[in-house]
Automatic annotation (TrEMBL):
InterPro entries: PROPPIN, WD40/YVTN_repeat-like_dom_sf, WD40_repeat_dom_sf, WD40_rpt. This is WD repeat domain phosphoinositide-interacting protein 2. It comes from the Eukaryota. Belongs to the WD repeat PROPPIN family. GO terms for cellular component: cytoplasm. GO terms for biological process: autophagy. Coiled coil: none annotated.
Amino acid sequence: MGKSATNLFTVYEDVIIVEHLYSSALVLIVSRQSPRKLRVHHFEKGKEMGTYSYSNNILAVKLNLSRVIVCLEESIHVHNIRTMKEVYTIKDMARNPQGLIALSSADTAYIAYPASSTSGQVDIFDTVNLCVAQSIAAHDAQLAALSLNTGGDLLATASSKGTVIRVFSLPSGDRLFEFRRGMARCATIHSLAFSQDSSYLCSSSNTQTVHVFKLPSISPEKSCATEYVRLNFLSSDDASNSYTSWVDYFSRTATHYLPSQMSDILQRETSFSTARLPFLSSFSAVALTKQVFLSKQKSRIREYFAAELVSSITFINLIGFFH
């Protein structure tokens, strides 16, 4: 990868993982031929800066301004990004065959990863102070996806059932929101992503529907009401109108019997929208910025919603996207 779309060159064949640090020239690569090796490449200089080997296949790589995180199935390796010295290893962790892990880009440098292979327990590890900051029982079923926002103070999770997406406050672990899919069908959620300003959360799955949620700002005193969470139904085609009507009725009724702070959370309306991708894919990943919504799939991508097509990423402008 060069500085522009007109300056491209091959670094490695059959790359299975590639991570780039913001606008820097640092690129981390794992190839299919050497799945246990992490290669650090400086694409402006066009040379490899170093190679680091691990005991098993590398499943995920994350990096921010201070840390490089390498995730294996049963261990996580924390490196200092300036020296690439390994400063800590999380060992004897629950099996994580999907390599589920998230890293915040803030000074907290939290990582989130599954603490159980059978339930939805999530551990939050502070990679600066090298200690567990929180453990959260996010779901009953095992995790399918998780994401940290840029500031490291919000965690989004989804279980293998695919019916519920939850948002937690960090480091407290308080549950802030619960976005529930309809009961008509389950889905395998592939990815979750916050916008840069944490105003929106989006999700993709094994269906063609991409969901976007608006996250209301919560004052500190309201975030303490952890046992009362807002239910947000994604779309009418995911749940029957009668089912949604009953839930709306009970939600409105419950607010009359709750303290004002808690009823405010239940009653707060949020904007949300869904987009339908033109085809199914074995895997999809999403990301949000303030300006554009992105959806990337492993298979071919074509223009959608008059989006600008760049390489294998579809950009969908948010203007007029919400309803």
